Amino acid sequence: MLETLYFLGIAERRTASDIGPKFDGNQAVELPMIAPPPSLAGLRAQAAGCRACPLWKDATQIVFGEGPAHAQIMLMGEQPGDREDLAGKPFVGPAGQMLDRALKEAGIDRKKVYVTNAVKHFKFVPRGKIRLHQKPNTPEIRACRQWYERELATINPALVVAMGSTAAQSVFGKITPINKSRGHLIDMKDGRKALVTVHPSYLLRLPDQDSRAREYERFVDDLKIAATQLQRDKAA
Ligand code: SF4
After folding, report:
1. What domains are there in the chain, each with its CATH number?
2. Protein residue whose Cα sits closest to atom 4 of ligand 1
3. pLDDT digit string (tens) for 42-98?
4. Atom of ligand 1 nearest to the CA of 16
5. pTM score, two decimals?
6. Ligand 1 pocket, 59 CB below 6 A?
7. Which of 17, 167, 175, 227 could disulfide-pair with 76, CB 3.0 to 4.6 Å?
């Protein structure tokens, strides 16, 4: 029952105030139907008021997806980082610069793809003047999946690229190992294709230059699969 409620998409809303202060992701509340948004801008405005998990409380603002309203490729990361939280835009920090470079090498124009995150508010713990990134947990990923579903319905991309384990969990609705799933297109039930790869921030965390260079090449190779698919779709 709980799983059904989580994955009903636009028919369901859960808010922290409805659920109560002890939200741990295991409660679900059925609320009235809400109308589908008319546009991506409408969706973004709707999401700004989301209170479906506690992450909105400490974040500066929501960081919604960005890109053409009918992009053929949707790229999904984990959650906004410190820079993204302040700017209100996805992938503008160091990981975003890494992504831009890799997209260019793969032959994909970032301006033509829609870029978003599985979780739309920044999760962190304060350490002095620094805000340390915290990985979103399963209840938070599930609570935020409704926005991915709405982005998907509005943009209708042919291919979704899940970058990292949080994105893969959101796209496939279950924990999905990256190494077993990456490097090939996966057919989705809704007719779309999905591609799994690492998150660019993973490349930034690698300790030595050799492994960073090697993994960066693998990341570009994965993105080239997306570029080839895009070309095929255009030719069809
Ligand atoms: S992280 Fe997602 S589910 Fe949680 S409040 Fe923000 S938009 Fe809503």
Report:
1. 2-235 (3.40.470.10)
2. 53
3. 999 999 999 999 999 999 999 999 999 999 999 999 999 999 999 999 999 999 999
4. 5
5. 0.84
6. no
7. 167
